[in-house]
Amino acid sequence: MADSLQKIGSTWKRWDLHLHAPGTKLSDSYGGATDETLKRYVDELEASDVQAFGITDYFSFDSYFAVSDAYRQYHPEGEKFFVPNIEFRLTETVSSDGRNVHTHVLIDPHVATREKLGTLLSDLHTHKTRDGVRLRCRELTSKEDHEQATVSITDLRSALAKVFPDETVYIIVTAANNDGLRGVDSKSPRSMSISDELD
Question: pTM here?
């Protein structure tokens, strides 16, 4: 075996770790997560030369589960790899125009059980309130809720540490461009401090 491995050299695989799917909570251009749209979607993924996909949704893992389930149904022998990628708008802002920073959390699918991901969404509070009580991510039900909700980076890190004590099973990725850290107001010590903390 050692001899055969020495002859192989490097093996490269293509990954796309930020991919929205039918039924994504915001900007769903697929027409919803119907059986038809999900089948067409996973057929495209199967035909792709990309091997691993980060299935992304806002404040939710619904798209990840829908795509994973549909893929197993329609391509039971398929070898594509799916990673849950949850996208948040942070309460913290760094730009002079007050735009919220976008942050993603990618979690090792080997430990990302439905139970653990459900617990994360139940434990993580947003800034939105209903009847004076902060809503948890799991309690966001409408498009308006998802458009308006934010979480603080401190609450996010705390909830992740509680559900996934092994920090090596997830990665927090904050955008640089667009709604990310590159738009930091460099004249504001507060913005610079927040940007450094997020970075």
Answer: 0.83
